Amino acid sequence: MCQDCGCGDAGLVPVEVHERILAANDRDAAHNRAHFEEHGVLAINLMGSPGAGKTALLEALARARPRLRIGAVSGDLATDHDARRLEAAGIRAGSITTGTACHLDARMVHHALHHVPLAGLDLFFVENVGNLVCPAIYDLGQAINVVALSVTEGEDKPLKYPVMFQTAQAVVITKCDLLPHLRLDLARLREAIGRVMPAPVILETDAATPGGVEPFARWLDQRAGALRLRTTA
Amino acid sequence: MHEYALVEAIIARVEEEVRQQGAVGVHRVELRVGDLAGVERDLLASAWEIFRAGSCCAQARLVIHKVPARWDCGACGAPLAAGGALQCGRCGGAGRLVEGGELLLERIELQVAG
Fold first, then answer.
1. What is the nearest CA distance from A35 to chain B, expressed in angstroms?
2. pLDDT tens sequence across A154-184
3. Among candidates B21, B31, B96 on the partner chain, residue whose Cβ is nearest the Cβ of A15
4. Distance from CA of B45 to the nearest CA of A (A)
5. For position A1, what pLDDT does the model report?
6. Does A102 contact B at CB distance below 8 Å?
């Protein structure tokens, strides 16, 4: 019976749903999360614009931490180039070709996990499709979100894409070796990040120089260490 | 353009309700979409126009309730000014999103046979 809009149509039945539109994705994400936790693997959703340096960051991390056992799946509209680069760097990698989809969802990651065994891994990266908008709202089952932001993208990028930064636990500033050639004001970039991220963690990196990704590697060491403490407690 | 994927998810959920209730049609679908939900309301509305054709929602009106973002301090509870830093000016605590992140299917009006 319609009692709300006054249309007087006895054939209308209101149904109060109050459910997240992404509820089905959330259920798939919970399944992935249980899978990661069961294996004691720290799962990281790595997001950023196309060309932000996500793959290079992971390659450099593998070089900087040869004893760390890293797995990854890379999402791309077409090609498995990123996954092949990661494999060459010693990362156990799979790819997800999304076709026209602009983001990964939990179901795609679940399918990819069938091809990348988690056993024995310390870290697992989901290298998301290069895009600062769509991936932000899909839970994949990760423990942490990381946004890669290159110094060529400008100080106001975080203000233009607040949702992605708001859901991140850390922002990795990439390509810092280019800073001498740019007019980027790092202080303004930090201020912009503080306006979209409640507890900002900003890690400056340079994947081209040995030791250049140490801030990111150390931060991950801490997070992976905390996870080990929890799972062995 | 994840708005298309969202509309597909909404229609799938409404279809489930139509089956359960044995409805003959859908009159109205209401959403709650926060400013920080990561969704463009206009794009969502255009995606709705494209996808509802041929579905159970072909005759349904989409109503999107907008929810502005509101932050307070996660430590001391003081409200944080809109557009400013998300760290508390009083105690330095990290901001907490009170509302404005929601992306909800709120309510459906189904048509049932007299």
1. 24
2. 999 999 999 999 999 999 999 999 999 999 9
3. B21
4. 15
5. 45
6. yes
**CB-based contact A74:A155 (threshold 8 Å):** no
More reliable by pLDDT, A91 or A6: A91
Q: Which of chain A's residues have a Cβ under 8 Å away from the Cβ of B84?
A: 195
Q: How many residues appear in chain A?
A: 233
Q: Work out whether the CA dihedral A117, A123, A124, A127 comes out positive or negative.
A: negative
Only one residue has tokens 């105690």, namely: B91
Query: Do A204 and A176 touch, CB atoms closer than 8 A?
Result: yes
Does the pTM of the predicted model rise above 0.90?
A: yes
Residue with token string 């400008």: A154
Here the ipTM equals 0.91
Q: What is the pLDDT of residues A81-91, one digit of tens each?
A: 889 999 999 99
Contact A86, A58 (CB under 8 A): yes
Indicate the pLDDT class of residue A78, thresholds 50, 70 and 90.
confident
